[in-house]
Amino acid sequence: MLELALHVLDILRNAVEAGATQVALTIIEDEPANRLTLTITDNGRGMDDETIRRALNPFYTTRRTRHVGLGLPLLAAAAETAGGGLMIRSRPGEGTTVETTFGLDHPDRQPLGDMAATLLAFLLAEAAPDLRYTHRVLRTGFPADNPVFAQEREFAFNTAAIRAELEGLPLNHPVVARWLAEYLAEGERELKEVEHNEPGAVEGAGV
Ligand SMILES: Nc1ncnc2c1ncn2[C@@H]1O[C@H](COP(=O)(O)OP(=O)(O)OP(=O)(O)O)[C@@H](O)[C@H]1O
Ligand SMILES: [Mg+2]
Hints:
The chain is of the alpha+beta class and 207 residues long. It contains 6 helices and 6 strands, in the order αββααββαββαα. It has one domain: Heat Shock Protein 90 (2-Layer Sandwich). It is 33% helix and 25% strand. It has a 6-stranded mixed beta sheet. A hairpin with a 4-residue loop joins β1 and β2 (35-42). The radius of gyration is 19 Å and the shape is globular. Residues 203-207 have low confidence and may be disordered. The structure holds adenosine-5'-triphosphate and magnesium ion (MG).
């Protein structure tokens, strides 16, 4: 896969297949720590230790329609190639957390890609679980350790709250879906505007 957003969609779909009614997705682009973290937590059926171990093996799947499960091994490989890794915490009957880290500036890290499109695809699916989404961007200032010019921005929403506002209209109602598409695209676009502060970029910075 060419972008991380598509891997994320895959992991979100695992949560749905595991019967989750609540899913949380957190993305942190942490420039000071040079780390990108993707965390997906669900309240689905969970896995025992043996299932976790086998889930990371590309020839294991509990699907009946195909014989290899690739979602987790592919994401794990993408993380390891980019100086990070994938960790699964899970308990039968309680749910699952998949946490993936990447070297933020690693040359082999796949770009995050179109997160707004991934979120939209997930939320417009029939019987989509509730999603709590947080995407946080931390950029270093200049000089690198100057907290004054560091920036932090966040795009976050919770579909349970959005649904309450909609008073029974489904998220995939055409009017709601159009609004949602714009809301997600705008939220992600604003995060991309968080720029690294270069010398001279801030007026009066004395450099
Ligand atoms: N969130 C989860 N909750 C419970 N079990 C999970 C979860 N994610 C993965 N699994 C288990 O791990 C297996 C492997 O997952 P993986 O995404 O790698 O492949 P798959 O979903 O089976 O197939 P593919 O993703 O290629 O369509 C799944 O079949 C399922 O048994
Ligand atoms: Mg899968």
